[in-house]
Sequence to fold (395 residues):
Amino acid sequence: MTYEIVFLILLSMISDILSQCSNNDVYRNMLEKKTLNFTQIAGRVGYAVEEYDVITQDSYILKLFHIPGDKTKPVLLMHGIIDCADTFIVRGNTSLAVTLARAGYDVWIGNTRGNRYARRHVYLNPDEDVEFWDFSFHEHGFYDLPAIIDFVLDRTGEKRLSAIGHSQGNTIFLVLGATRPEYNEKVNLLIALSPMCFLNNLQNVASLMVHSMPVLEQIYTIAGQEEFLGDDTIVSRMFRAFCGCKRSYGVCAYGIFFPIAGSDPDEMESDFFPTIVAHYPTGTSKKNAVHISQIGMKKKFLSYDYEFRNVDVYNSSTPPEYDLSKVTMKVALFAGKNDQISTIRDVKLLRSRLPNVVEFKIVDHKRFNHIDAVWGRNVHKYLFPDILEVLETYR
Fold:
C-alpha cells in the first residue's frame, strides 16, 4: 500500500508540473528560443559558422561545424554519448567553442553517427533500415574520426590537429589510435575532459545503469527499437515534456542528472536547466549503449561482445581488448573528484596504460562532475584557462 501511495503522489506531482509548463505561454516562448541549432547559437554571440557534410568510408553523412580562425592552429572538438556538437556552444559566450575561437584557434566541432546532426546515410534510411543503427563507439573511432580528421587537415593544409574530447568523445580517439595507429601522427594532442575508457569504479546510479542495460536491451529488442534516446523517440519526447520546465528542476536535476554524473547545482543552475533539456539527449544506437555497459560489467576496454558470434567476427570466443599501447598521440587527462562516471581511479588506470600522457590534472573545483566540462556555469574561469595553457604548451 505504501508503494501505491508514493506512486500516486509522484503521478500527481508530474501531472501538476506538466500542466503548469504547458499552460505557461511565456515559458513556451523561452523554450523555442533555447532550441536554436549550433549555427544559430554561434550567430547570436557574433560568430559565423561554416557547415560541411563529411562522408565516412561506410557512407554515413556527418555534419561538421567550423568557426574560422588561424588555419595553423586547428582544434577539433568531439562530444560524448547521446550528445552532439551543441554541447560545446550551448553556454554561448562562455562556451568552450567560443573561448577557443576568441583565442584565435581554427575551431572544428564534429558529430558522430546517430545524433541529430548525423542521422543520415548515402543509402540507408534511419527510420526504415535497422542496418543504419548497427554501430557502437567502435565505428565512431574507426570510421567517423578518420573521415573528420582527414577533412579538417585537407581544408587547413596542416599535417596535424589538436583535439578536445568530452567523455565518450575521448573513447573514440583511443579506439582510433589502437585500431588505426597511423592516425596517431595526425593528432598533435588530445585533451581528454572526463575521459571514459575503464568503467571499473562506477559510482552509485551510474553503476546501476550499466548493470541494468541487459534488461533494457531486451525491452528495446522486443519493441523493435534500435535508436537509443533520439530526438523523436517516445522516451526523449516524454523526458523533454516533463524535464523541460523550470519547475521540474528539483525532480530532474536531483533525480536524474546529478545521481548519474555527480551533484553540482552551482554549475548547472535551475535557470539554465531547460536549455540543457532542449539540447540533450540527442540520440545514438542501442548497440552503443550496450557496448558501454559491456565495458563496465567486464571491467576491460573491449571490442563489442557478439557472444556466440564472436568466433565469426573475431575468430575468437571472446572479444579482443583495445591495445592502448598503440595510442601514441600525446594525451592530457582532466578528471574531477566528484565525477561518478569517469572516476579518479579509472582515469589513473587509463594513465597507466597510455604510453604518452603529458599532463594529468584534477580540476580545481571540488564538485566538478562528469558534465561540468561542457555545461558548467563557471568552467570558463577555472577550467578553460588550463585548457588554453596546455594547448599552447604542446603546439
Notes: Residues 26-393 form a domain with the Rossmann fold fold (CATH 3.40.50.1820). Residues 69 and 105 are 5 Å apart (CA to CA). Confidence is low (pLDDT under 50) at residues 1-19, 22-34. The chain is about 45% helix and 15% strand.
